[in-house]
């Protein structure tokens, strides 16, 4: 992720297929990409936490309930 030269002149968004004739339009578009990425990252983190919590709950249930007689 270190291309600085070619893409800049074409006015194309490196994140999607959109092409812009004005630099201003493109930078505004790139800002929206950044916002989207932020939201997506936050969402992913939430999902991870939810999955971890669910796994934790399941582990607790297994430990306290079924399987107690299996230990030996
Ligand atoms: Zn784009």
Automatic annotation (TrEMBL):
Annotated region Disordered: the residues are 47-72
Q: Where is the composition biased (Low complexity)?
A: 51-63
This protein is called C2H2-type domain-containing protein
What organism does the UniProt record list as the source? Saguinus oedipus
């Amino acid at each position: 992720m270190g291309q600085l030269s070619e893409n800049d002149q074409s006015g194309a968004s490196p994140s999607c297929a959109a092409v812009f004739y004005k630099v201003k339009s493109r930078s505004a578009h790139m800002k929206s990409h950044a916002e989207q990425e932020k939201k997506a990252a936050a969402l992913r983190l939430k999902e991870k936490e939810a999955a971890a919590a669910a796994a934790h709950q399941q582990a607790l249930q297994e430990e306290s309930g079924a399987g107690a007689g299996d230990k030996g």
